Amino acid sequence: MTTTVDNPRVVPARPASWFFSRSARQYSHALTFLLIAPLMLLLAGGFIYPIGRLVSLSLMAPGFTLEHYERIVTEPLYMEVLLRTLQTGAIVTVTSLLLGFPVSFLMAHAKGRMAMLVSAAVLVPLWTSVLVRSYAWIVLLQRNGIVNGLLIESGLIGSPLKLIYTEGAVILAMTHVLMPFMILPVYNVLRTIPAEYTQAARNLGAGPISAFWRVTLPLSLPGIFAGCVMCFILAIGFYITPALVGGPGALMMATLIGQQTTVLLDWPFAAALATVLLTTTLIFVLVFRKALSVSKGMNSVN
C-alpha cells in the first residue's frame, strides 16, 4: 500500500476569472478592454471623429463630389502653396538639424555651469509664447529695425534692406522657434551613448572625425529621425509665424486654410486643403519610419 504526501511548496492554481488570467503578469482580455476603453473613447471623440467630419466635409458641395480636390490639382496657386510649404518645412528641418546637433552634442558632454547655461538657453525659449518670439523677429528685421540700423551704422549698406515679409524671414523665424524640438530628442539619445565607444574607436586608430562619423552619428540616428519628424510636421502646419513675418510670396498652407475659413467662408474647400496637408504629413511619417527601420537593419548588419 502506498501513500502520497502533499508537497507543501506546490500551490494550487487559482481558477481563471472573468477579470484575471492564469498568469499573474497578464490581464484577461475583458479587463484589458476596460482599462483602455477611456483612452479609446477619448481618441475617438477628440481625433477620429473630427478627422472623419473633416474628410466628409471636403467631399460635399452639397452632395458627394471631388471638385474641391480637382480644384487643388488644376489651379496652379494651390499646388504652388503646397510645394512651398513642403519646401519651407524641409529647409527649416535641415537648418534646425545643422544648427541644433552641435548644441545637443555640447549639452550631452558639458558639465557644471556650462551644462546649466546651455540647457537654459534651449529650454527658456520653450517657455516663451510663439507669438512673442515672432514679434521679436519683426522688431529685429523691420525696415527701421535693429539689424538694418546696425548695417547702416557700420557702413555696409546705404539704405534699409527688405528683410521682413520675405520667405527668408519665415525660414529664419521658424528655425528659431522649432530648433528646441530638434535639440532635445538628439540630446536625449547622445547622452545615452557610452563614452567608452568613442574611446574604443580612438584606441583602434580612428581619428576624432572618423570616430564621430562611424560611432556617434549612427547611434544618434533615432534622435535625429525623431527631431526631423517633429520639426517637419510642426513646420508645415505653422500658422502664427508665417502670418506675421511672411508676405504674399511666403504664403503657406496653414495661412491659406485660415483665409478660406475666416475670410472666404469656404469651409468645404478649406477641409479639402486640410485633408491634403494631413495626408502629406502621414506619408512623410511613414517614409521616415521606414527609413529608420532600414537604418537600424544596416547598423545591425555592420
From TrEMBL:
Q: Which Pfam families match?
A: BPD_transp_1
ABC transmembrane type-1 domain location is 82-288
Q: What organism does this protein naturally occur in?
A: Rhizobium leguminosarum
Q: Which GO terms describe its biological process?
A: transmembrane transport
Gene Ontology CC: plasma membrane
Primary location:
membrane
Q: Where in the cell is it found?
A: Cell membrane
Q: What is this protein called?
A: Binding-protein-dependent transport system inner membrane component family protein
Q: How does it sit in the membrane?
A: Multi-pass membrane protein
Keyword annotations for this protein, in alphabetical order, are: Cell membrane, Membrane, Plasmid, Transmembrane, Transmembrane helix, Transport
Cite the PANTHER family for this sequence. Answer: ABC TRANSPORTER PERMEASE PROTEIN, INNER MEMBRANE ABC TRANSPORTER PERMEASE PROTEIN YDCU-RELATED-RELATED
Source organism lineage?
Bacteria, Pseudomonadati, Pseudomonadota, Alphaproteobacteria, Hyphomicrobiales
Family listed:
Belongs to the binding-protein-dependent transport system permease family. CysTW subfamily.
User: Transmembrane segments in this chain: where?
Assistant: 30-52, 86-108, 115-138, 169-190, 211-240, 267-288
